[in-house]
Design brief:
Blueprint: H1 14-42, H2 50-77, H3 90-111, H4 121-135, H5 139-169, H6 173-186, H7 191-211, H8 215-235, H9 240-244, H10 248-269
């Protein structure tokens, strides 16, 4: 068996970015072709069908991961793309979830400072809100998309491929975490989700870097999306302040306190036990 220290590692470059984008588009086109066949062959438009949304999302991300695996990772390393999904010691979970919740509070306050009215932001916000409303109102579909599929696929791509690939390339870990978080924010395509995605992406990236396991950022990502889904379902808003009828500054204060305390404990005072593959 090849010694672990001699194993070649994949790196992330513009070729890797092209493979991810090309695979994402390719997967999307395959599903779009299925819809074209359904329209002309069976007079049925699947575009806004719940199952089609799930299929389209999965095909796009699987296409991206497949393309990076076969076009980049395997030629570089001589083996298939592989990730560590190992669980860690129980104490780690009690540190990272409050840390994540704190950043969720902070992200809400900062996002709330972005205008939703005016000549530019007003029209953009209306367009974005309408787009989200047209996706689906089925709770089960939203849970599958946001709480199951998005955390798994997005963490594999943004932390497992982009961030780890940059670190393997020799990029400073903090810079790699920042780059992957910014890219994660940009792909959301709007300024309101960009802010939260960058801030939360930074937490996810740091947790992945420290634990070396994708399981942890996947669980944190799912936690964030699950909380947001519940707020939408039962309060028709993603805002903690609006849901619990409290001042936004209280949410910020709670966020700063939670994040600062548990980040310090997680980063400085506690030894995380992990096994990297």
């Amino acid at each position: 068996m090849e010694p672990k220290t001699l194993r070649k590692k994949y790196i992330f470059t513009w070729q890797g970015a092209a493979a991810l984008i090309g695979g994402f588009i390719g997967g999307s086109l395959v599903v779009s072709l299925i819809n074209v066949v359904a329209i002309f062959g069976f007079k049925v438009n699947l575009q806004y069908d719940d199952f089609y949304l799930i299929l389209a999302n999965g095909a796009a991300f699987i296409g991206a991961i497949f393309a990076f695996d076969y076009l980049i990772a395997r030629p570089m390393t001589g083996r298939k793309l592989n990730f560590n999904f190992s669980p860690t010691n129980l104490t780690t979970y009690f540190l990272i979830f409050p840390m994540m919740l704190g950043m969720m509070f902070i992200a809400e306050f900062i996002t709330g400072r972005i205008p939703i009215s005016g000549p530019f932001f007003g029209q953009f916000y209306e367009f974005f809100s309408g787009l989200m409303e047209r996706m689906t109102k089925d709770k089960a579909t939203l849970i599958i998309l946001a709480v199951v599929m998005a955390p798994i696929f997005e963490e594999i791509v943004f932390r497992g491929i982009i961030q780890k690939g940059l670190i393997n390339k020799g990029v400073n870990p903090w810079k790699a975490i920042g780059i992957s978080a910014v890219v994660f924010g940009l792909v959301h395509g709007n300024p309101w989700q960009f802010v939260g995605a960058v801030l939360l992406g930074g937490v996810l990236g740091f947790v992945y870097y420290k634990t070396k396991s994708l399981l942890l950022p996947i669980l944190l990502h799912a936690f964030n999306n699950l909380v947001s889904s519940f707020l939408i379902f039962y309060a028709d808003t993603e805002s903690f302040a609006e849901t619990f009828k409290i001042p936004e500054v209280w949410v910020l204060a709670a966020g700063v306190l939670l994040f600062s305390l548990f980040f310090y404990l997680f980063a400085k005072k506690y030894r995380v036990h992990y096994a990297e593959i």
